[in-house]
Structures are given as structure tokens and as C-alpha cells.
Amino acid sequence: MVRTIFFLICLFPLTGCEFFNAEVKEYLFQFNSADGSLDKVIANGYLLIDGVKTDISTSNIQELSVSEEFIFLTAVIGGDTYYLRVPSQSKSFDLVEDYLPDAMTFLSNLYTPTGGIGSLSNYSVKAVDTYEGSGSFDLTAVGDFMANNSTQPKAIVFEFGIDFDTKRTGGLAGGGGSGNGSGSSGNSGSTSCVNLIEAKNLVSYWPQITSGNATGTGKRVAGNSIFADYKTSDVALVLEGSAGGTRYVVQLMFTASNLTANKTLEFRNAGTGTGLTNIGAVGRLIAFNGTVNDDWRTNRDFGKNKNMGTLRILTVIPKITGTYSFQASGDGYPSSNNQFVNVSGTFCID
Length: 350
Known about the structure:
single chain; 2 domains; 5% helix; 53% strand
């Protein structure tokens, strides 16, 4: 009787057989340039090293492995071989060299990361068998990398959207450069904007507000919408993201004349209540959890006229992109409270 029911289910157009196969939870999809299996993969993205952008596509991939636990990617870009490993979870990760369970590894033959964060987002995989199925996901990474032949760090931003289907044919030809995207199931590739927020070593007045990594949205607003002593022409980039029950808001503020591609600024200001100057930027983190919130700034008394970090503006057209890393404190730090935080990440704003 059971065999008869199973046979009848498999006769329907939305085959019940596929329904049973879709329950496969353990899988391993492997694609390799050597055996021609990359024709089942469509990939689009870019690599940005100190403002120099290189578009990347399926043709840059040497190997791609996707399992229920990890993603491994090897790609050749501009004569250098890059290796990326990330757990198969849609979240943000630290960029480190060690193969830790909760870390993204991103390095190359020429560069080694000295710090930064990465993210896996929009991860969606359907396995109809151990080695058969389809899926898509977006990979991003931003950080400071040290070249093997240099003592000066370089800012690196990496965005890559991948879509694969083991039944697809001709995917490599359809992959193209960073503007293509056909058959990517909504995957935006290099046209997407990713804003990353990493709040580390966070000490708040409220115990429910803690450190975290978040991926979120970004927008540009007038400086005086943040602080009244700033000008309408001043620039404020506002990033928002949530993690672990806490919503993080990062505000990056500087004068309009500093909104220039390949511009590096210090987070340096004369203090709370003083306007922005061309000398530096101001960074602020606001965190919310339930009914409480807290606030850290680079221009509190502790940070007055000090270099509290670095803001790098990489591009301004067609999108405002860059990286940031700053220290910020609460009012009265360190004499009357311990409120302090290290904030870093990347921004991309239309």
C-alpha cells in the first residue's frame, strides 16, 4: 500500500519525489575550472584595493565548494590568488588567518589581513541530493591588508554574488562582468550596497547593550540633522543594523569638501559643541535595546583634538563607499564611567 501511494505521488507535476529529495540536509557541491563544472555557476562582483577597482566574474574562480557547514572559494584576480572560507551562516564574521569555527578567512598569496570584518548574506540552498541542487549567496569583506613586500596596510573591499545550479548549462558564458546578473535569482552581485558595523569591546551603562556585528542599510543626510552646530552642507553618513537584540546606528560626519574619492581622514575634532572642520571627521555610535539606549562619540572630552581612528572614502560616484574604524567614549570617560567602544566596518550608499 505504501509503495502504491508513493508511486501515485510521483506522477503529479509538482512531483512528490522532489519533495522527498528536497529534505536532504547534508550536501556538498563542488565546481572546478579544471573539469569544466563552472559552467553551472554565475558570479559577479569586484575587488577594491586602496581605491583601485577590479571587476570579477565566474571566469576568475578556480574552485568553489558549498556544503551545509562551510563555503570554500579560490579565485585568481589580477595575477594574485585569493582564498576565502566562511561558515554557511548568514551573518558577519571577523577576518582572521586562523581557521576558527566562527570566523571568515580571507587572504591571498600577496596580502594578509591585519583586521576587518566579512559577511555572508542571502544564503539560500536547496539540495535535492547530496551532490545535486541549487543556491545563491552574497559574500563581502572589508579590512586592512598588509602586502608581503610592504609595511603599509592597504584597505581592501570585496563583494561577490554567486548563484549556482547543478542542472544549469552555459553558466560561465552567462556570468559576464559585474553588470550582468541574468539567472541570479535576485542576487545583486557588485551592484548591491552592503554596510557592515562591528562594535567591539563595548562597555555600556546598560548591561543589555553589548558588542555585536551587524549588516544593514545606509543613507546620506545633512550634518545639521545630527547636531545643530553643524552646517546643512556638512555630510553625515548614517548606517543602521541589528544583531542579538541590539540595534546599532553609526554616524560618520565630515565637511562636504572632504567627500572626495581616495580620501583618508582622521577622526579628529576640537570637542563636543564645536563644528566640523576640514581637518577631520567625527564618529558616533548609538545603540538601542528595548527601552534603553546609549551613545559613544569620538569628540567627547576624552577624544578632544586626538586622532581617534581612520575614515577612508574610496568612491563617491556612482556610490559613496569606504571603510571606517574609530574609538569612541561616553561623557566623562574614563574618570566617571567606563563607557567605551571600538567601531569599524564598511559603507556603501547610493
